[in-house]
Amino acid sequence: MAQHLVVAMIAPLLLVLARPLTLAQRALPPQSARRVLLALAHSRPVTWLVFPPLAALLDIGGLWLLYRTPLLAATHHQPLIHAAVQVHVVLAGLLFTFAICQLDPLRHRWNLAWRGLTLLAAGAGHAILAKTLYVARPPATTYSAVDLHTGAQLMYYGGDLVEIALAAVLAVQWYLATGRAHARLQRRQRRPPLTADSPPHTSRDF
Predict the structure, then answer these.
(1) pLDDT per residue over 33-91, tens digit each?
(2) What is the membrane topology here (predicted)?
(3) I need a labelling partner for 194 at 20 to 30 A (CA). Which of 10, 24, 105, 182 fits?
(4) d(CA 137, CA 143)
(5) pLDDT tens digits, residue range 125-176?
């Protein structure tokens, strides 16, 4: 469970906060590589992949499939299944975090309402899953009650901490957007209205 928190939640959050697309665009040569990366980020499939509810379904839905079906038990005996599950957990966690934060330039930036409501729903789904693990072990596994309770508590409280960090990112974005809108409104209110007696603007006025 500690591995799940680090790989699927904490590491994606730190990576997304580093703005990897923006960094790559600045570091890559201005020729084909940068244009290809920008075209990929602005493509229609990426736009829909970072649609917050879809990203949450892939992430939280995958966790429910892992822990509430015999899939987790299968990963203990099948290395290929284990590797595939780990890759999915990493990519789904990264996609969800990217869809919630949306700090890098995208073709379409989903508004804060979509992202905030999705974060609440995903947090509820993650918390409910942790509570089910507290009372019932994953199918076909033999975890002891002590390990089961410890893992479920780690998932519940650790997930809350990461979700609070994501909510803080959204709060900062909302604060900055509201501040910019308020500043634009103040500038419009300070601008004197034009009247018939107002002298025309010339190039010297600027």
Answers:
(1) 777 777 777 778 888 888 999 999 999 999 999 999 999 999 999 999 999 999 999 99
(2) Multi-pass membrane protein
(3) 182
(4) 7
(5) 999 999 999 999 999 999 999 999 999 999 999 999 999 999 999 999 999 8
Our CA dihedral for 119, 15, 7, 101, rounded to 10 degrees, sits at: 10
Res 194 pLDDT > 70: no
Please state the pTM of the whole predicted model: 0.81
Where residue 102 falls (left for φ over 0; alpha for ψ -120 to 50; beta otherwise) is left
- For residue 1, the one-letter residue type is M
Q: Which two tokens stand for residue 83?
A: 């590797």
What's the one-letter identity of residue 58? Answer: L
**Cβ neighbours for 129, distance < 8 A, ≥ 6 positions apart:** 60, 63, 64, 67, 68, 155
Q: Residue 196: phi, psi to the nearest 5?
A: -65, -30
Instruction: Report d(CA 137, CA 149) in Å as an integer.
Output: 9
